[in-house]
Amino acid sequence: MFNQGLSLEQAPPISVPFRFFLTAPFFAILIGIMFLVYPADVITNRYSNESIAVAHLFTLGVLSMIIFGAMQQMLPVLAGAIIKKAKLFAFIVHTSLTLGTLFFAINFLSANKLFLLAAIVCLAISFFTFFLVAIYLLFKVKYLTSTVNVMRLFAITGLLTVIWGIYLAISHFTGNLNSNHFNFVNIHIILGIFGFASLLIIGVSFQVIPMFYVALSFPKNLQDRLPLSIFILIISYIAFAFLDLDFYIYKILFTIFLIIYAFNALNALNNRKRIVEDVTLWFWKISLYSLVIAMLNWLFVPQDSSYFLTVLFAFGFLYSLLQGMIYKIIPFLCWFHLSSKGYFNIPTIREIINEDLIKIHFYVYILSLVFFILYGFFNELFFNIAACLFILSNILFLINCIIGMKKYTTILKEDSFQTFVQS
Ligand code: HEM
Where are the bilayer-spanning segments (predicted)? Predict the structure, then answer.
C-alpha cells in the first residue's frame, strides 16, 4: 500500500509524516475558535482581513500541512523519489510552515506588519524548500506513471501559487495594492484551489482508490488527459486574466472536469471488487458528493456570495477526503514500521484506531457541515453551533490520531524479539 516494495531504510522515519498530521487538527480547532470569536458576517465576507486569516489557517495550516506530510511519505512510494536527510527536511518544512501560518493569521487580525514580514520569510522557506526539492526529484523520475505526471503538475502549480501568494503578501506589506490586485488574487485562488489542492488529490486518487479499497482503476485515458486539461485551463486562465473577457466558460470547464473526476472516483468506489465495510470510505464519498454539489452551485447559483462554495469545497470536499486518507495512512504506517522492525505480536491495521471512534468523529463532522450549510439560510446561531461541532470533531480527530501513535510507541517499547517469542 503506502510502502509497497519499500524497505524500512528507504521509507522516511514515522515521525516525519506524523508531525504534519498531528499539527493539522490544531489549526482546524483554531479556525473553529475564530468562527466563535468573530461575527459570522465578518468571517464570511470574502474581502475582510479576518476571512483572509481564516482562509490561510485552512489552506496553509490544514491543507498544506497534510499534503506536505503525505507527500513525504508518498514520494518514495509512488514516484520512487527518496528525500535525503528526511528528518532535517521535515523539520525545516514543518517548523517554518507552522510559524509562517501563525504569523500570517496574526498579521491579518492585528494589522502588525512585522508579523507579515515574519510570515513571508517563514512561508517562503517552507514552500520553496518543499517544492524545489519535490520538483527536482519528480523531474528525475525515469519510470513515469500517471501519478508521477500529476505530481509534477501539482508541484508546478503549487510553486506558482506560492509565488503569487508572496507577491500579494508583499503588496499588503508595502501598502501598494494596484488596480490589478484582484486579478492577481483570483489567479492565486485558481492556482491554489484547482492546481495545488485538487490536482494532488486527483493524482493520488488514481493510485490509492484501487489500492486502498480494492476498487476499479480509473480509465487510462482519463488518467492521462484529465489532469493535463485542468493544468492547461489554469495556465490559460492566467494568460487571459487581465483581459476583459467573460470567464463563464472557465467555470463551465472547471465544473465539467471536476465532475468527471468525481463521477469516476464514485464509480470506482461503488463497484469495489471486495465489499468490506470501511468507515474511511464514508469520508471519501461525502467528499466526492460535496465536490459535485459545490461545482454545480458555483455554476448555477451566481447570486451565491461564495459562502456555500467555500463550505462545500473546503470542508466538504478537501478536508473530508484528507481526513479519510489520514485514517488509512496512520494505521498502515504504524503497522509497517513495527512489522519491519521485527515486531510480530501487533494489532492488525484496522485495530490500530478503533473504528467506532472514527465513526463518532465522522458523525460530528457531518453534523458540523450540516449546520454550516443551514447558516446560509438561517441566523448566526447555526454558525456558532457549526463552529462548536467543528471544534469537537477536530478534537476527536486529534485524539484518534494520538491513539494510533500511542499504540505504536507502546509496542515499540517492548522488546521486539520478546514479542516474537510470546506470539
Ligand atoms: C506562501 C503561501 C501563501 C501566501 C503568502 C498567501 C498570501 C495571500 C494573500 C496576501 C491573500 C490576500 C489577497 C487579498 O485579498 O488582498 C491571499 C488570498 C487567498 N489565498 Fe493565499 N497565500 C499563500 C498560499 C495559499 C495557498 C496554498 C492557497 C490554497 C491552497 C491559498 C488560497 C488563498 C485564497 C482562497 C485566498 C482568498 C482569501 C479570501 O478572499 O478570503 N493561498 N493569499
Answer: 20-40, 52-76, 88-109, 115-139, 151-170, 190-214, 226-243, 249-269, 281-301, 307-336, 357-375, 381-403
User: Are both 9 and 118 inside the same structural domain?
Assistant: yes
| Best residue for ligand 1 mutational test, from 185, 306, 317 (most atoms within 8 Å of Cβ) | 185
Q: How far is the CA of 164 from the centre of ligand 1 (A)?
A: 8
Residue 369, all three cell numbers: 457541515
| pLDDT 10s digits, 274-324 | 777 889 999 999 999 999 999 999 999 877 668 999 999 999 999 999 999
At 184-231, the pLDDT tens digits run 999 999 999 999 999 999 998 998 898 888 888 999 999 999 999 999
User: Is the residue at 120 inside a domain?
Assistant: yes
Of the CA atoms within 13 Å of residue 178, those in its CB half-sphere come to: 7
Domain count within the chain: 3
Residue that has been written with the C-alpha cell 510553486 in this structure: 159
Dig out the grid coordinates for 41 from the structure. Answer: 458576517
Counting atoms of ligand 1 from 1, which one is nearest the CA of 51? 41
For residue 161, report the distance from its CA to the centre of ligand 1, in Å. 8
Report the atom number in ligand 1 closest to the C-alpha of 52: 41
Q: Is there a domain that residue 419 lies in?
A: no
Q: Is residue 422 part of a domain?
A: no
Ligand 1, atom nearest to 63 Cα: 30
d(CA 35, CA 43): 7
What's the pLDDT tens digit per position in 71-103?
Answer: 998 888 777 888 999 999 999 999 999 999 999
- pTM for the model stands at 0.94
Claim to verify: residue 208 and residue 103 sit in the same structural domain? no
- Residues 105 and 103: their CA atoms lie apart, in Å, by 5
Q: What is the span of the domain harbouring residue 58?
A: 1-143
**Residue 137 sits in the same domain as residue 149:** no
CA of 171 to the centre of ligand 1 (A): 12
